[in-house]
# Entry
Amino acid sequence: MAGIKQGLELKQTQKLSPLQIQTIKLIELPIQELEQKIRSELEENPVLDDSPVQDKDENDEPKDVSIDELDKDDPIPDYKLRVNNYGKDERPQYNTFSVKESFTQSLMEQLGYRQLSRHEHDVAAFIVGSLDEDGYLRRDIDSIVDDLAFRANIESDPDEVLRMLKVIQEFEPVGVGARDLRECLLLQLRSLRQTDEVRMATRVISDYFQEFSNKHFQKIMARLSMSPDDMRAVLAKIVKLNPSPGGQIDDSYNDQAQQIVPDFVLDMDGGELRLSMPRFSVPEIRVNRKYAELLAGAQGSSERQQKEAAAFVKQKLDSAKWFVEALKQRQNTLESTMRAILDYQHDYFMDGDESNLRPMVLKDIAEKTGFDISTISRVVNSKYIETHFGIFPLKFFFSEGLENQDGEEVSTRELKKVLRDFVDSEDKRKPLTDDQLVVMMNSKGYKVARRTIAKYRDQLDIPKASLRKEI
# Structure
């Protein structure tokens, strides 16, 4: 019996509390979605009322009652739900900025139009969140199944994940959700009108992708009995495809604009940085008087109906408590994270000079704040800061780093810029090989290995030398 009890206790410790779940979900939301969530909570929880405190009913009695007042007659002492984080002054105006609809948001909007069960929608949404910035799913299906179980508490299997991936691969821009370049190109070819050239291009990518990547065109022509004109027509089709559907959404698709509100505002005041958080619409949440009286009237009552009503109100009070506390924790987590980023990147934020942007990864900020890396990731996602030199997503400030020859760390953003400049200025009749790029980078003081050059090339969508050669 003792062994069984121990097993049950172990399982219990793995579950997140309602407050933790609420906080995690709220941290992920940008301000505008947070405001919608608050409105939704007010509509769904009848014990909450955001009417102004000074409102009166027909009998000139206040409509609402604070939890402090309710507690005078309530034996349950823990429901301190009244929230007044910002005083009674009017909410200050803040700037909104028109930005293109984000890649993830556009995919989620398309997902909303699909007839899926709640469970299928959650699985698909997790896959969308797992795509990289180029729109690829770089993780294998089994790993996604494991992540669903351990990170999202969603039970699934490889067949279901693959089925939901196929749904996502039907979204715009075509090619999204591919697991490699070959699959990305095939998804795009199969979406085109099936002319002879398209069918032949599909055959080349499907069956001879390695030969095509290595520009072994003569071998392909021989095996498929293609003429030089056929090969040129196939090449013309393939080079028009988009190898990075997540990073280069077509303008005709991505001209929807949305208004965003910066989560943070950074001002320069007397040579000092001053951080503030534009106030989002968190109402002063109070318990509706009708429900407060219902709960108070049920104290000590033996009538079943009154007890059931009181239990209902108490359940809703619990929900409200978790929600309000989660709002507070969200704000504290966001502010602590942003202040840690400001401290880490202080020199950069003084004037916006990118050369002062230090290499920084999620782990660096996690160590400074004491938060988990996954929490930092949620804070950074879809959040913006308005500075005195522009508007930036928080993701912009994160990059890996390497040492230069002087032993100083430089950001990968700087390294990639230098690499791009070398490739842009090369002789396309004799493109620079990765080994040559290593020598040139070293001559500029950057210590990089050949595999690092290859990695950065892939991230910058720069083909290897043999594919950059022009006649």
